[in-house]
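Raw record, unedited: Agmatine deiminase
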Amino acid sequence: MHLIPDWETDHVTLVLPTVYMDIYNDYLCELELFYADFLVEISKFDKVTCIVPNQAHREKMSRLSGVNPSIFYISCVKDIWLRDFTPVQLDKCYAKFIYNPSYCASHLNESTEQSCMEYFRVASEGNANIIPIDICLEGGNFICNGQGTVIMTEKLYSRNKSKSREEIESLLKNNLPIEKLVVIPVEPGDRTGHIDGMIRWLDRERIVINDYNYANVHSRRFVDKLHACLDKHLPNVERIEIPYCPSPNKTYGWYNASGNYINFLRTKNMVYVPIYGIPEDEDAKEKYSQIFGKHVCFLDANAIAKYGGVFNCITITYKSGLIPI
């Protein structure tokens, strides 16, 4: 049994922001156009499902995007940050953590989680084997290399204070095929405390990581602590630094994700990298083109970035043919 890394996946799912999600209403038209363009690009290379609340939204997005109406699935999932509250895929089952992030009200977290699991149950026709794990953890704070090594941030511990670190690690290793769990410092100023805006696996033995010296916005102490942790726990894993120029701008209390190139969407067919119309885009394009060659495309992410996340945050990817979904 093993955890499925993103480069083995081929089915992308995302949730359309709608008028029923109040926080997105100020920029809803811009977001709808972004999602339409995003769907067009993904559907060129991968199977895609876009969850919409009703037939009217299905018809509207089909007109805007020009994609086949069959990709739109009607269900009332209550938020767009799908990565964080959907089950993690293994080759024989799924695993589900408790969704209760510190940056949202508990009753909203519960409602979002329930709406997602109802979609999951119906989409899998009730046949998906889901293992519940008694750990508060969002999917954005969980990256695996498919060979038993998982990286998270210290938010894992702060969100599970009723348990000791040993208990937390035992729960994870006893329920999942994890041989090595690496826990790194949280990036200062990041409300989510997630790993997927800091580091991503490229394969079993390489990671990409934010170049925290690129814009000199983070303390030397944090950068030294981060790299010391990686030196200690992943000494044989190659690190490739990616330009990082975090924005000082905020929307609804969230820092704009503009300047973050690590939160890309990846499948076995393509890597979808966010760009922002800023000078740093060119350095990021050069780096990723060297890594992925022709299997990378660059898409404007400004519409969604203002809410604090980009492509990995708003999607979940699964490997088709393993288990129903």
